[in-house]
Design brief:
heterodimer; A: 382 residues; 8-stranded mixed beta sheet; B: 309 residues; mainly alpha; two-stranded antiparallel sheet; 2 strands; 74% helix; 3% strand
Chain lengths: 382, 309
């Protein structure tokens, strides 16, 4: 009898162990993103996309704290310290700009926190500085520009004029472009960061024998350039990366953007279930079309939620392994991590079109399939 | 490098310059007459652009938008002067800088609150959206040409206002000796409000005109504000003539620098990409170098008055 009881107790005990949910401990996420100042529209989209996924999952164990870095590295560092030390967050996310990423991410990693980047992908963190607690859910900075280079090569343009603002991400853009376009250039030019008048560049392009234009001008700079380009009367084909053509700024550019080509890892009309559900839910919730950034925020949250299903964040190795599986339905369709924990994904060419009253992007073709960044071999991680 | 390219860039520089003039005219008047450093001047630029974009989108007419922009910027100018600025005239410059900096934050976040974080749509009116052939040499944008003309018309108008009208006499007198003209029975409060509103309206006009070819977004005024300060330092604080000359100098130097410097470096540097990066980095410093040079030879600016700065 005693042995039977013992056995029973053992069985009950084992059953208890068995049914204990893996992620009983609540997980706290700190989101530090840009919600005021010049780059606010990007941060707002990332936040809204992220929170949409959180709301849909309705997981009581997930808590999110949101703060605004005002696009200032100093503020971002302070907020990160506060979140780690007094809020005791387990995972950090939210960074939009690469210079802020370099200020915040390495020190957060040193303190043993996980970082999921929903946007910035500086090359330093993809190559030698890769880290087992750092995951990039968007792209490595060069990726979309590389695709633009590939597109220009494939289309058969012989003399593109290329330009970008004179700062690290701008230089990476032109480097990325040239990695996949090896032909002749009609000209190469760096503009001032934040410049809003492109008359000088336009005159230079007009005077050169360019047959196409590649540019990287995120946010308001792109709006200004596109309007001035249209009004200059030139009609060379324009190629850019998604950053100058995201949903938020297309309405401000209007007619001037129609017909231009841009490269992106996501488009609102990608034909997969997760994406269609996302686009619909986002419109329902916020009454506007989602942008690239919103899709990245949404994917980041879903990645995190998928890992929470499988492992407890306090077991760092198990949690890392769960993240690395990327076992979630991405809005981009296929999505996996390379060994440096940056995405391997398809990159598309999109065309700006007008649908009713709204300017938006339409995906045309995959230009780089299962594309991985150029720095992965420098990463010593397994 | 062809002659037509140079000529076209000269026009571009001129256009950039006259728009800077609209911005700096108000700034220099307010500083000259009231002795006030107004950092919030860039906010009027932004307010003008947003008012124009909102009304142009609602009514479909750019010209109505332009009217709305002038009215809104002037009205906000009056309000700000009455409620805040008036208390600052007697304070020292540090207090003025602090208070007007606070105004920047209030206006920026207020605008974001009303219009959201995304840039607004404002297009060039159809009648000006094409190009016009100049001297049979090259096609130049009609709109930019119109901007140059508007800029010079405003400059002449301001000059006449200040030199030829009774109001202008009072403004000049206010610049020379504030207490004295108050004692002589001029309603100095009303004069100050008028000058401030005029400056605000001009900044708003610049914002709307430039907004049509750039991006109407929160924070668009601050980069221009910095340039406007460079202009009035070069031109001499308080001088409209100086502001005009300074604006054109800055506009042309900046535009020509961006064109010529990268080529200059490319002529003796082996690596083309490096030459482009170095040249453009130097080009963006050029106007500050210009400012430094002017200040070495003319510490009060080109048309500055001794002891005023």
């Amino acid at each position: 009898m005693k042995t039977v009881l013992n056995k029973l107790a053992l069985a009950v005990g084992a059953a208890c162990l068995w049914i204990t949910p893996v992620a009983a401990e609540p997980l706290k996420v700190g989101m530090i993103t840009t919600l005021s100042g010049g780059g606010a529209s990007l941060g707002v989209d990332v936040r809204d996309g992220f929170m949409l996924a959180v709301k849909q999952a309705d997981n009581p164990d997930l808590e999110v704290v949101i703060e605004d870095d005002q696009r200032k590295p100093g503020v971002a560092v302070q907020l990160a310290d506060k979140m780690i030390q007094s809020e005791k967050v387990d995972v950090l996310t939210g960074v939009i700009f690469s210079n802020l990423a370099m200020a915040v991410i390495p020190s957060a990693l040193q303190q043993g926190k996980f970082y999921l980047s929903p946007n910035a992908g500086p090359s330093q963190l993809a190559g030698r500085g890769c880290n087992k607690h750092y995951f990039n859910v968007a792209w490595q900075n060069d990726n979309l520009h590389e695709a633009a280079g590939a597109y220009v090569t494939e289309t058969g343009y012989k003399k593109p004029f290329i330009f970008a603002p004179n700062y690290p991400a701008g230089q990476d853009a032109l480097t990325g472009f040239k990695r996949f376009y090896e032909g002749e250039l009609a000209g190469e030019s760096y503009t001032k960061l934040g410049q809003t008048d492109y008359a000088a560049e336009l005159a230079q392009i007009r005077a050169s024998d360019a047959d196409s234009i590649f540019f990287f001008l995120p946010g308001g700079m792109g709006v200004a350039f596109l309007k001035q380009y249209k009004e200059s009367g030139m009609d060379l084909p324009l190629v850019g990366s998604a950053f100058s053509f995201d949903q938020g700024i297309l309405q401000a550019v209007g007619e001037a953007a129609v017909g231009t080509k841009n490269t992106a890892q996501w488009s609102k009309d990608l034909d997969n279930e997760a994406n269609q559900a996302f686009v619909e839910a986002f419109q329902e919730e916020y009454d506007r079309l989602p942008s690239l950034y919103a899709s990245q925020g949404y994917d980041t949250a879903n990645l995190l939620l998928s890992a929470m299903e499988k492992a407890d964040v306090n077991d760092a190795d198990a949690f890392r392994a769960a993240l690395k599986e990327a076992d979630f339905a991405s809005t981009r369709g296929d999505f996996e991590f390379g060994k440096n924990q940056h995405p391997i994904q398809d990159i598309y060419v999109r065309e700006v079109v007008k649908e009713g009253d709204v300017y938006t992007n339409k995906a045309l073709d995959v230009i780089l399939a299962d594309h991985q960044d150029a720095y992965v071999d420098e990463c010593k991680m397994k | 490098m062809t002659f037509t390219l140079l000529l076209e860039q000269l026009l571009n520089g001129l256009q950039f310059g006259v728009m800077l003039f609209l911005m700096s005219a108000g700034l220099t008047l307010v500083f000259g007459v009231m002795g006030l450093i107004n950092l919030a001047h860039g906010s009027f630029y932004m307010i003008g652009a947003f008012a124009c974009a909102a009304i142009a989108t609602a009514t479909g007419s750019f010209w109505l938008g332009l009217l709305a922009c002038l009215a809104t910027a002037a009205m906000v100018g009056v309000l700000v002067e009455r409620l805040v600025i008036r208390r600052l005239y007697k304070r020292d410059h540090l207090d003025q800088v602090l208070a007007t900096f606070a105004l920047i934050l209030i206006f920026s976040e207020g605008t974001r609150w009303i219009f959201g974080s995304f840039p607004l749509m404002l297009s060039v009116p159809d009648s000006l959206s094409s190009t016009v052939s100049l001297f049979g040499l090259f096609d130049y944008s009609r709109y930019r040409l119109a901007l140059i003309i508007v800029g010079f018309v405003v400059a002449v108008g301001l000059f006449l206002l200040i030199q030829k009208t009774r109001l202008g006499v009072r403004i000049r007198a206010g610049e020379a000796d504030r207490e004295m003209i108050a004692v002589l029975g001029v309603n100095i409060d009303r004069l100050y409000t008028f000058v401030f509103a005029l400056g605000a309206a001009l900044a708003g006009l610049a914002g709307a005109l430039v907004g049509a070819i750039q991006s109407v977004q929160v924070g668009m005024g601050e980069p221009v504000l910095i340039l406007a300060f460079v202009v009035i330092v070069i031109g001499g604080i308080g001088s409209i003539k100086g502001a005009l000359l300074g604006s054109i100098l800055v506009g042309v130097t900046d535009t020509m620098g961006r064109l010529l410097l990268p080529d200059l470096f490319a002529s003796f540097m082996a690596n083309k990409a490096d030459a482009a990066a170095t040249g453009s980095a130097l080009a963006s410093m050029l106007i500050y170098v210009l400012m430094a040079f002017v200040l070495i030879f003319k510490p009060n600016g080109l048309f500055g008055v001794e002891g005023k700065a």
